[in-house]
Amino acid sequence: MATNQPKQGSENDDCSFLPLVHDVIKCMDKDSQDVHQELVKFKTRIQEAREQIGAMPGIDMSLSEQQQELETLREQVRTKNQLLQKYKSLCMFEVPKAS
């Protein structure tokens, strides 16, 4: 089953809202005109987080569907490990020794 994996290492990986909230509060304490700008940044970051959550693989599946998928994948891993052990025990391949 092919799934779309989100890009790793992008600048959007930062999920911390605390610095943005801090900036908003700091502007409010100083009676700064930048409060609106800081609020826009905060709202934008919340919207980006919503979009990231919506794009996560499996988010559209129910808990029982996710558990079933997990069990299927675990069974595939067990089967592949068993086959790997079986093929290793056949000793059909000569492994060159390092000198």
From TrEMBL:
Signal peptide: none annotated. It is found in: Nucleus. Transmembrane segments: none annotated. Its main location: nucleus. Residues 32-90 form a coiled coil. GO terms for molecular function: transcription coregulator activity. Keywords: Activator, Coiled coil, Nucleus, Transcription, Transcription regulation. One of its GO terms (biological process) is regulation of transcription by RNA polymerase II. One of its GO terms (cellular component) is mediator complex. Belongs to the Mediator complex subunit 9 family. Component of the Mediator complex. Component of the Mediator complex, a coactivator involved in the regulated transcription of nearly all RNA polymerase II-dependent genes. Mediator functions as a bridge to convey information from gene-specific regulatory proteins to the basal RNA polymerase II transcription machinery. Mediator is recruited to promoters by direct interactions with regulatory proteins and serves as a scaffold for the assembly of a functional preinitiation complex with RNA polymerase II and the general transcription factors. This is Mediator of RNA polymerase II transcription subunit 9. It comes from Oncorhynchus mykiss.
